[in-house]
Design brief:
By secondary structure, the protein is of the alpha/beta class. It has one domain: Dehydroquinase, class II (Rossmann fold, 3-Layer(aba) Sandwich). The chain has helices at 20-23, 28-41, 54-67, 84-93, 131-143; strands spanning 3-8, 45-50, 71-75, 97-101, 123-126. Strands 2-1-3-4-5 form a five-stranded parallel beta sheet, sandwiched between helices. Helix 4 links the parallel strand 3 and strand 4 (97-101). Helix 3 runs parallel beside helix 4 (84-93). It is globular and about 40 Å long. The two termini are 19 Å apart. The structure holds ligand CA2. Residues 11-12, 14-15, 18-19, 23, 75, 77-78, 80, 101-103, 105, 112 line the site of ligand CA2. It comes from Acidihalobacter aeolianus. Catalyzes a trans-dehydration via an enolate intermediate. One of its GO terms (molecular function) is 3-dehydroquinate dehydratase activity.
Length: 150
């Protein structure tokens, strides 16, 4: 079974507990549980990793290369706008990835409009809340040539 790695960056562990007006009321565990089941229905094994630390995210991407991960779906959270280290790790990994943001980063503060990752991503999904992860899994499944579920 092809393996997908879902990565969530800093503070996303707080989902459902703070700022529901911006990020919704579902917890990260609840969202991950749903997308894991969705991935399985498409014949994909989805492993999740969340960290509040830039170096841990870099190390996890490096590990994904060694594990033969087929696709990465990543919400880098605030590191989107700051992290050349994460960009370099994703470039070095050679694993295709999709960047996801729960909120529409283009409709918020100007500093959120720039991403260090978007130009090297296969695609970017913003503004659809937790459904964005599901859309990203669908896109990854299609890119990997997985048959559609009924
Ligand atoms: O919209 C997104 O998904 C973001 O990646 C979320 C990041 C933000 O820095 C990006 O600009 C856009 C922030 C994640 C913080 O998550 C929280 C969740 C609940 C309560 C507080 C923060």
């Amino acid at each position: 079974m092809p393996q997908l790695l879902l990565i969530n960056g800093p503070n996303l562990n707080l989902l459902g507990n703070r700022e529901p007006g911006v990020y919704g009321s579902r917890t990260l565990d609840d969202i991950v549980d749903e997308v894991q089941r969705h991935a399985a229905s498409l014949g994909l094994d989805l492993v999740h990793f969340q960290s509040n630390h830039e170096g841990e995210l870099v190390t996890r991407v490096q590990q994904a290369s060694r594990e033969g991960v087929s696709y990465i779906v990543i919400n880098p959270a605030a590191y989107t706008h700051t992290s050349i280290a994460l960009r370099d790790a994703l470039l070095a990994s050679d694993i295709p990835f999709i960047e996801v943001h729960l909120s529409n980063i283009h409709a918020r503060e100007s500093f959120r409009r720039h991403s260090y990752l978007s130009d090297i991503a296969s695609g970017v999904i913003v503004g659809f809340g937790p459904s964005g992860y599901r859309l990203a899994i669908d896109a990854a499944a299609s890119a990997l040539g997985m048959p559609r579920s009924t």
